[in-house]
Amino acid sequence: MIQKEEINQTLRKYDKKKVTIATIGSHSALQILKGAKDEGFKTIVISRKDQAIVYDQFNVGDEKIVIDDYKDILDEKIQEKLIDKNVILIPHGSFVEYVGAKNIEDKIKIPMFGNRLVLKWESNRDKQRDWLIKAGIKMPKKFSSPEEIDRLVMVKFPGAKGGKGYFLAKNKKEFNAKMKKHERKGEEYSIQEYVIGTLMYPHYFHSPLESRTEMLSMDIRYESNIDGLTRIPSAIVSGYKVDPSYVVTGNIPIVARESLLPQVLEMGMNVVETSKKLFPLGLVGPFCIESVCTKDLEITVFEISARIVAGTNLYINGSPYSQILYKEPMSTGRRIAREIKSALKRGRIEDIVY
Amino acid sequence: MIQKEEINQTLRKYDKKKVTIATIGSHSALQILKGAKDEGFKTIVISRKDQAIVYDQFNVGDEKIVIDDYKDILDEKIQEKLIDKNVILIPHGSFVEYVGAKNIEDKIKIPMFGNRLVLKWESNRDKQRDWLIKAGIKMPKKFSSPEEIDRLVMVKFPGAKGGKGYFLAKNKKEFNAKMKKHERKGEEYSIQEYVIGTLMYPHYFHSPLESRTEMLSMDIRYESNIDGLTRIPSAIVSGYKVDPSYVVTGNIPIVARESLLPQVLEMGMNVVETSKKLFPLGLVGPFCIESVCTKDLEITVFEISARIVAGTNLYINGSPYSQILYKEPMSTGRRIAREIKSALKRGRIEDIVY
Amino acid sequence: MIQKEEINQTLRKYDKKKVTIATIGSHSALQILKGAKDEGFKTIVISRKDQAIVYDQFNVGDEKIVIDDYKDILDEKIQEKLIDKNVILIPHGSFVEYVGAKNIEDKIKIPMFGNRLVLKWESNRDKQRDWLIKAGIKMPKKFSSPEEIDRLVMVKFPGAKGGKGYFLAKNKKEFNAKMKKHERKGEEYSIQEYVIGTLMYPHYFHSPLESRTEMLSMDIRYESNIDGLTRIPSAIVSGYKVDPSYVVTGNIPIVARESLLPQVLEMGMNVVETSKKLFPLGLVGPFCIESVCTKDLEITVFEISARIVAGTNLYINGSPYSQILYKEPMSTGRRIAREIKSALKRGRIEDIVY
């Protein structure tokens, strides 16, 4: 684990007037880079050859670094080069997936926005559950073995691979059949009650500088093949069985019933407060609480993402919610840059970077 | 019934330069308060203790009044206090639901934006149907008893409780079984043909000052559990029966095929024209015509909401439609404030407040 | 076929300072007219009597021409009148549908934005397939006769009637039953594999002036009755069979997973490059590649629309994507006007009009 003090030392050497915002070219990089630019930062996008076209075509990133593999960012020379340019790195879901939580904790010497201590709590399902339960959040029942399954459940596998391989089952028999079919033998898995209701993904931002947890926007995910399967009428599907899968392919904007917002806001605030008790500094910056709202208007949470989520890409020009908080279009990407700018001005950059 | 003249007298005593816009903290209050602020008004939010967090967190409402129960707004002292502050109250769905149509008609002495005479026509399904039919609008077949059910129907119960308890039935037997299951014995209900097509909720605004009915935006509702149920494939659902419910939990933005807009605009205009024949002043301000579009591109209407609907919350920063009409972001909430501002300027506030 | 040189001659006679943008009142006319106005053009809307209300109500079109039938635009006098006003006509889906591709090619003497040579390639399914395959795009398997059907297929009929009459079938028997039921005997049809996944309709704009293919926005279609059918649980639908239909009634906004954008952008660029080899000038201006994304994140294309599509109506005030490219709200309609303005300034109007 790279120590906070090591990052602080690096930050102290930074030319605070030339801080550059960099990110990996995928996931929410367009938004992060545009947001940084809107706040006046110089930007760098580090992308794999096959993805560079996106940042060329949309003309973002003052500087473009092309690498062969995302793990190349662990390379000492690349890291030194970025540190020389006073880079603050913005992590996102693909970054964590491609580079690996352990590698980030142990090998990324570049100052990163947010708190890398959260990775331990986010990447382990048991620790994550512990955190959320401590925050007073209602979660779906967890089944520790297939024998216990007594209702509809979702079976999930580790890693943020965008829902790949998840499946539904009603009982042990179905569970076993699908494990076999999916060739999941011997793999780790988690079995969670499948709560029926409307999915809701509120996007939060916790600002240590303002001591405030903001709710900036909300989305639902657009998943393949499930969101295509629903459009095949059951009469036609019968005798034509296709297993549903839950691979995220995009996002759709929503707003929530206003009387749900107290629950939504309190969840966000409680998660932040609890995090401070669990690890130093606690949760910093953007996060998303993946939840489902039942017909009794009760919100149940099945996961937390302790970083910017791709659903925020819908709101590059602001959301209905962020428009209330800010008088200018405020995406989550721009909000991150705004927090960094504000911290630099107040001499508090160490409070939001690790 | 509080007489129009009584409200007019109150209005005459108002300091027209200090008019304050107030609303109940729920439903579309964020939008209403932001819109009022954008138009330069002082604002007050009156909220129940458990909902106050929303208006604190989003930092809206120049003044905040916290009450124990929404019916407390009927209290003489609170009303006098608000009248002393030159308040115009903006009603919305939750306001009508929490306070009750009868209470609003008989006890709210505070000048309210819009025409409270519409409440009688909106809250009674038969009067509402009468109004819409007179306006030349196509409605689903109505069944006066379960015996008559000969197709798929939706059974609804009175009150704007966001779709709670509604159910589908194909025949008398299913109707009886579900009434029993839902413990709805002895309650009032309405049985409506369930027209299959795409739901569409256009948001209108009738301006008496401009003599114009505007179509400002459009949404679809995001309902629990039905919009979650659709994502469980039929093969899995079989033997795992869950009754659908239709509780509104949020909203999703849409635009309509442009060739449907003549129908949509004419519906709005006809509803307003007809209202003028049914009750003095007629419909004033925002309303929504809940409709479904069949595969033959015919729009059928199953309900009208004669006030701001929560679907407009999607468009706090303007909608594709409102952007054509206005050169600045125009939500329905802001449109209300704009009408009030305009009426104050022209000395016509009595034409839009009752 | 009206020759390019004839159009060029007309253009040469135009008063370049008084160019007027005109379109047919339907489909995306609101957007086109607003966009043209935003770029400083005078505008004309030509609409059928029953649709004129839309353009009156939204107050677009500096001049309004009302005609009885959209084919009246073929009338020499109307065309001359428009040419006298230095009109550049913006074609859209309804224009092609109402007037007919052949009529447009042979009889429209008014300079049209884009390249009318594309109509031949777009209106013929075989030529269209040829074009897309040459561009390296993956398409669903095509079945040349009902006998060959060995999986779920979608059966489509010619003409851009917004999905009317399309149906699903799993085998020859179902195909025959539905052809009979839909009274489609003797009609032309195409049988395409029904690829299961999330539908995605990216909206592109190819600018010959900037030599750039932009991706401006993305939508999904909201179709009747299929998107209503999905909300009827299978348990209720059983014994209550309704055939799905796919008539477009509106659009819903989406963004795509960022790691899909290389595929999306390359498809757009390849389609443009290939078009240049197939016909002079190639594809110019807006187009949409109707596609589906499988659970393996592979994009399959089932159609191309080589003109502005109605899904862009969602983004009259800009999209998340167009906001990255432009610092002002850039709809596809406005992008068209911007290209015309730019071409006029550079003396290159002949490169983008035919």
Structure report:
The structure is a homotrimer of 354-residue chains. Helix content of chain A is 34%, strand content 23%. Chain A is an alpha+beta fold. The first copy, chain A, folds into three domains: 4-114 and 340-351, Rossmann fold (3-Layer(aba) Sandwich); 125-137 and 197-238 and 246-332, D-amino Acid Aminotransferase, Chain A, domain 1 (2-Layer Sandwich), CATH 3.30.470; 142-193, 2-Layer Sandwich (Dna Ligase, domain 1), CATH 3.30.1490. In chain A, the strands form three sheets. The first copy, chain A, has a five-stranded antiparallel β-sheet. A four-stranded parallel β-sheet of chain A has the order 3-2-1-4. In chain A, helix 2 (29-38) packs across helix 14. The model of chain A has no long low-confidence stretch (mean pLDDT 94). Chains A and B meet through strand 9, strand 10, helix 10, strand 12 and helix 12 of A and helix 2, helix 3, strand 10, helix 10 and helix 11 of B.
State the main characteristics:
globular, Rossmann fold, 354 residues, five-stranded antiparallel sheet, homotrimer, D-amino Acid Aminotransferase, Chain A, domain 1, 3 domains, four-stranded parallel sheet
Summarize the helices and strands and which ones pair or pack.
The structure is a homotrimer of 354-residue chains.
Chain A: H1 4-13, E1 20-24, H2 29-38, E2 42-48, H3 52-57, E3 63-67, H4 76-84, E4 87-89, H5 93-99, H6 101-107, H7 118-123, H8 125-134, E5 142-143, E6 153-156, E7 167-169, H9 172-181, E8 190-193, E9 198-207, E10 212-225, H10 226-229, H11 234-237, E11 246-253, E12 255-256, H12 261-278, E13 285-293, E14 299-305, H13 320-325, H14 332-346
Parallel strand pairs in A: 1-2, 1-4, 2-3
Antiparallel strand pairs in A: 5-8, 6-7, 6-8, 9-10, 9-13, 10-11, 13-14
